[in-house]
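User: Hi! I'm working on a homework problem where we have to compare a predicted structure to a textbook description. Could you give me the structure for the chain below?
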Amino acid sequence: MSKVKKKMIALLFATLGLVVFWILRGGSYSDEQIKYITKLEEFRSKKNIEFRDAPYSPFNGKNKIEFHPLKYFDANFNFIFTGKLYENKIKDTVKVYGTKGEERKSVRYGLLKLHNDKHKLDVNIYETLAQDELTKYYSIWFTDRTTNDESYGVGRYLNFELNEDPEFIYTIDFNYAYNPYCAYNSAYSCAIPTREDYIDIAIEAGEKKFHE
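Assistant: Happy to help. Predicted structure tokens:
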């Protein structure tokens, strides 16, 4: 059996198993919620396969280390937020340090004002130049009350796609929060969230601490 077929079979079983699991829990989830959870688990299964096999993954790159499946909180609908981005009139360039002590620079582009039925959050958006020094990308870096306990001690990240419409309503889903490469392999360095990036609640969603 080819590697591709093995991957597809593993992914299929992971997805089907999750659907059955949620249904057997007593039918407490709607069809839309089950669809969401299935999509999330499919994403996580694909990431496991990618991190296990891809030559650029933190397990196969610098100082190759043994792969183990990534660890996650269960899907949690309490950590999906919507809100608007308020672009900073003065975009400060801030010093951000890497885990190996090196100084980096990033632009604090704006502030996301988020809410759901349980919480209101203010989250910084950072604009950073890629290694080609031409491409800009946008990120959320954060720590929270789970940091260094259930989640990685440095902090976690979320990718962010900027929309040109200033009235656009963003959806920020912390179930997709992920660890930087340094969480798995100390050969890598990653940006450390600043004090201003602390969220004063326990974000019990997304990726957990990899190493105990």
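For your comparison, note the following. Residues 4-11 have pLDDT under 50 and may be disordered. Helices lie at 3-24, 31-53. Good luck with the assignment!
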